[in-house]
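Project outcomes to date are best conveyed with an example. Our students and postdoctoral researchers have been running inverse folding experiments weekly, and each run begins with a structure described purely in tokens. The record below, which covers 456 residues, was selected by the lab manager from last quarter's runs and is presented without edits.
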């Protein structure tokens, strides 16, 4: 089970500012990016092809493998927080400090194989800064109790905390129980585009789009009342609003401090725009077939399920074209796998060029099989499209001396159509198209056949 680590996707992963580890279902390491080598001193050739537990036995425990393995069966992404799992892949920084890590593990589909992608972020500086802030806070409390040193201790603590707040890369806001902003550090000014004097004394909602005001009011009020926000240990993802009116994603964490009898909330916010863009890029790549560049089976299955539900609501017709390159195994045996790959790419491109509506989807279904999903399309229109694709593939004139259908590459088609009902499921439509494809092959191939069930 090999994957092409020179592909564009893995070149991108190799330049990411986080450690990236790709695992096969048996926990064999398929990819180990440059940053992990820099952190650990373990080079790719030492670990790729081996089980990750050979070098890191801790990952074979239920604590880790027990949460990672379900991902290969369609389980949800997993987050290993820095508080509970600080050293997933143990490594030392230049200062000798153990690297504190936050790890997210998600699935990645490549050529119909599911892999687990672990992205490991170094949050040592952030965690140490938070620890230092807490230490300073506790120190201030103890010194306050020493009446003779109250003023000096408070002044020193204030200067230290202000230095940390002013130099932090995260936006730090201090909010009172009336939801009014009392402090706004330089990083917050950079992120939101406001000067501190423009927002101090204003409601925190000024930094949020209008449609989220009640949600954030409820969130802060719940924290004020209970002290326990309903968020994960990694923070709460919210939407911010810059002075220029642009919205952006950010992560918000809230903690409480008391100054005398006054309760204040400290909000730490991170602009996660680049992280979300990268996640979207990775998701898009995960939905594409690695060879042909069109949508893959996973993308098709998700789209079919979604369109089936939509057609149920709208009582619309849903058509599908299932197609198979004729005698493709013979083609590979005769011309070689490189020519076979080029043939698959050419056919996929021809199919994709035949579609003109945004809602239509062409996907590689598996091997030499392709599929086209056509919402709001009649059986006649779907059949006409299949015939146009069939002729276009013929016009490519790709030689195929081992074919019994023609001296060039041809494709057989099965077409089906249905108005989805509440009692049915997408498998019905696929089975109908498969019957049409079987009929096309039985009738000599290089032809379009409509499912008899669809036509009835």
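After processing, the design step wrote out the following sequence:
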């Amino acid at each position: 089970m090999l994957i092409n680590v020179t592909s564009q996707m893995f070149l991108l992963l190799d330049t990411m500012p986080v450690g990236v580890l790709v695992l096969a279902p048996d926990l064999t390491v398929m990819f180990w990016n440059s940053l992990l080598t820099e952190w650990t001193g373990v080079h790719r050739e030492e670990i790729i092809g081996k089980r990750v537990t050979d070098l890191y036995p801790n990952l074979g425990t239920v604590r880790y493998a027990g949460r990672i393995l379900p991902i290969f069966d369609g389980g949800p992404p997993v987050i290993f927080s820095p508080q509970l799992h600080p050293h997933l892949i143990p490594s030392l920084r230049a200062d000798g400090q153990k690297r504190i890590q936050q790890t997210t593990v998600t699935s990645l589909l490549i050529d119909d194989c599911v892999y687990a992608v672990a992205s490991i972020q170094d949050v040592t500086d952030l965690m140490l800064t938070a620890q230092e802030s807490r230490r300073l806070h506790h120190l201030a409390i103890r010194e306050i109790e020493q009446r003779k040193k109250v003023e000096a201790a408070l002044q020193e603590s204030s200067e230290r905390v202000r230095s940390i707040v002013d130099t932090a890369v995260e936006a730090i806001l201090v909010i009172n129980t009336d939801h009014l902003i009392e402090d706004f550090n330089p990083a917050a000014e950079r992120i939101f585009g406001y000067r501190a004097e423009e927002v101090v004394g204003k409601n925190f909602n000024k930094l949020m789009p209008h449609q989220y005001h009640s949600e954030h009011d409820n969130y802060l009020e719940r924290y004020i009342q209970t002290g326990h926000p309903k968020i994960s240990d990694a923070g709460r993802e919210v939407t911010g609003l810059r002075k220029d009116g642009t919205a952006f994603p950010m992560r918000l964490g809230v903690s409480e401090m008391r100054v005398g009898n006054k309760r204040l909330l400290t909000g730490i916010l991170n602009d996660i725009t680049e992280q979300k863009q990268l996640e979207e890029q990775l998701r898009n790549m995960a939905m594409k077939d690695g060879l042909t560049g069109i949508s893959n089976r996973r993308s098709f299955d998700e789209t079919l399920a979604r369109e089936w539900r939509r057609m149920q609501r709208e009582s619309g017709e849903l058509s599908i074209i299932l197609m198979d390159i004729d005698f493709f195994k013979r083609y590979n045996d005769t011309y070689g796998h490189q020519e076979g790959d080029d043939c698959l790419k050419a056919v996929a491109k021809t199919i994709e060029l035949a579609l003109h509506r945004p809602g239509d989807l062409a996907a590689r279904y598996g091997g030499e099989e392709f599929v086209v999903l056509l919402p709001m399309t009649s059986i006649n229109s779907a059949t006409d499209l299949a015939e146009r694709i069939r002729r276009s593939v013929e016009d490519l004139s790709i030689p195929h001396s081992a074919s019994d259908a023609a001296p060039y590459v041809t494709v057989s088609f099965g077409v089906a159509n249905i108005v989805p009902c509440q009692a049915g499921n997408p498998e019905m439509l696929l089975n109908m198209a498969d019957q049409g494809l079987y009929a096309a092959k039985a009738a000599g191939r290089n032809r379009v056949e409509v499912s008899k069930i669809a036509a009835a």
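The longest helix spans residues 124-145. The radius of gyration is 29 Å. The training component of this project remains on track.
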